Amino acid sequence: MPQHPEAAQHPTPVDLPRQLRRFALTVIPILAVLHAYIGWRLLPALPIGTLWIVVGGIMLGMTTLLIPLGMLARFFIPRPALADRISWVGSVVMGLFSSVLVLTLLRDLLLLVAGTPSLVGMTAMAVLLAAALLTLIGFVNARRVARVVRIDVPLAGLSASLAGFTIVQISDIHVGPTIKGDYVAAIVARVNGLAADLIAITGDVVDGSVVQLSSQTAPLARLRARHGAYVVTGNHEYYSGALEWMAEFRLLGLRGLMNEHVVIEHDGARLVVAGVTDYSAGLFDLAQRSDPLVALAGSPEGIPRILLAHQPRTAPAAASAGFDLQLSGHTHGGQFWPWNLLVGLQQPFTAGLHRLGRLWVYTSRGTGYWGPPKRFGAPSEITLLRLVPDPASRG
After folding, report:
1. Strand order, beta sheet including 260-266
2. Which residues have CB under 8 Å from 240's CB, separation 6+?
């Protein structure tokens, strides 16, 4: 639910009307069927009269339209403030609808197994109350500043000078209709308070064009680390104009890495920090196809190699190229229940530190959120990674 499909949800202006019509003709009928299912299964079971059943049906019809309207408001509403308000309502409704739908399905399974008529009314009310509670708690979790998660990454052969080297990773902020400059500024303040050696931004910073959002991303210019801040593209940058955004990030003082690397000098030691374009970048522009091997080309041998790659799916190619550590995002950890249990079907690593051969992969749950302002079971994070020697490699 919280992830876009890997197709151009933000098409070019030339084909925008056609794409919007296609989106509406595809999504609205599906939403209508799902809302009808909810109404059919819940409304007659609730202890309410006919009038309120009719009112409930009308409300379900309205939310069927509010969800796509919230997603598309900025495309056809010329007043940005009004478009953002509609997006806010549509996003909250999307999160509530998701929970009601899932809980309704679970309720039907329970009734099928239990076969107890006395549970019908009680469980219908429980679905609505539980969905409302999940949405409220999820909203609070999503809107507060991300917590700091501290992770030690053991690297074989790490020199004494690099032992304790710190990287702050932020990912998937999704500046857009519901995430604005004040939210970004709070993230920046927390990151700067960690006094890291390096800052890594692993994609999906924005959901909108530079013209729409440059004033909201401006606080990123205040990011501070000893060796600077580096950024790579995520899939949402390609929905929003990736090259324009990478140019804007440069103006903010961030170093973009698009299939390229830098060598960091730190207390007499060196390490490679590389970055690749998003795993899906080749679908938008073949010239920007993600390639960890190209990103590493010409780098020194025998020193730690760290890759910033938005999607965990880059890991096999990163391992083959010879990287020691990959930092990724994209998954949001599923963002909220039950999608946090299902995202592993699409990505090899959902969240946290994992190993693929000699490659460590850390997947952030994301620092913001996409779509519904809702996090439940997958808290947002600002990650402080510390490089430490691998005890197993000591001879």
Report:
1. 260-266, 269-275, 305-308, 325-328, 359-363, 352-356
2. 10, 206, 207, 208, 209
Structure tokens at 376: 């439940």
Rounded Cα gap, residues 290 and 389, in angstroms:
30
> Which is it for the CA torsion 26, 4, 338, 92, positive or negative?
negative
- Please tell me the CATH code under which domain 148-393 is placed: 3.60.21.10
Q: Are 149 and 382 in contact (CB under 8 A)?
A: yes
Provide the pLDDT for residue 129.
97
CA 127 – CA 133 distance, rounded (Å): 10
Q: With beta carbons less than 8 A apart as the criterion, state whether 145 and 186 touch.
A: yes
Structure tokens at 15: 């084909």
Beta strands in 257-337 (DSSP E): 260-266, 269-275, 305-308, 325-328
What are the 10-residue block averages of pLDDT along the chain, 395 residues in total? 41 55 84 97 94 95 94 86 94 97 96 85 95 98 98 96 98 97 98 98 96 97 98 96 97 98 97 97 94 97 97 98 98 94 89 96 98 96 97 67
What single-letter amino acid sits at 219?
P
Determine the distance from the C-alpha atom of residue 161 to the mean position of all C-alpha atoms in its chain, rounded to a whole number: 34
Contact 353, 362 (CB under 8 A): yes
CATH 3.60.21.10 in the chain, residue ranges: 148-393
